[in-house]
């Protein structure tokens, strides 16, 4: 449920990134990136809220009562995914604008961090500790890619909840593709 908005956002923005970055339409590209990140973040936040408050019930209903204990792990993993969705297509922007080496370095560092912390956390806190380590690695990776996307391209990719942005983004985007 958490990755579905991210996958849909990624599928949507790839051709937009390719077209608008090749024509150097940065303002429209940023509007599209932030708009899709916003649209993906809203359902992700709703799913996170549902899992935080009703995780035990959802797990028991879907997988059986024995899985109620996994609610904390589920909530921690979902929190990391919300950050990933909120940062938008920052990794795609890096990859598609010639900054794939920076993306590779960030991915290797964040993955190594997750593995090392996960091993240590498993000893200290079990599955919850591993979930925290994985979420922390995901957050570090996405925030680093988000910052690098802005540093290298001048494009912010994160979602926003400002209604004025959503209205302006929709009108700009509709004018461009009429």
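^ Assign residues to that structure.
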């Amino acid at each position: 449920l958490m990755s579905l908005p991210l996958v849909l956002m990624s599928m949507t923005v790839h051709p937009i990134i390719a077209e608008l970055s090749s024509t150097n339409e940065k303002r429209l590209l940023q509007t599209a990136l932030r708009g899709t990140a916003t649209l993906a973040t809203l359902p992700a936040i709703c799913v996170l809220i549902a899992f935080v408050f009703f995780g035990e019930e959802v797990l028991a209903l879907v997988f059986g009562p024995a899985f109620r204990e996994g609610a904390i792990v589920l909530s921690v993993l979902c929190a990391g995914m919300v950050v990933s969705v909120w940062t938008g297509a920052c990794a795609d922007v890096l990859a598609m604008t010639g900054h794939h080496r920076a993306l590779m370095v960030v991915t290797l560092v964040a993955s190594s961090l997750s593995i090392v912390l996960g091993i240590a956390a498993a000893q200290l806190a079990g599955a919850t500790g591993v979930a925290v380590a994985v979420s922390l690695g995901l957050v570090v990776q996405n925030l680093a890619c988000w910052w690098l996307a802005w540093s290298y391209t001048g494009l912010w990719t994160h979602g926003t909840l400002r209604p004025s942005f959503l209205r302006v983004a929709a009108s700009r985007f509709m004018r461009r593709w009429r």
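The radius of gyration is 18 Å.
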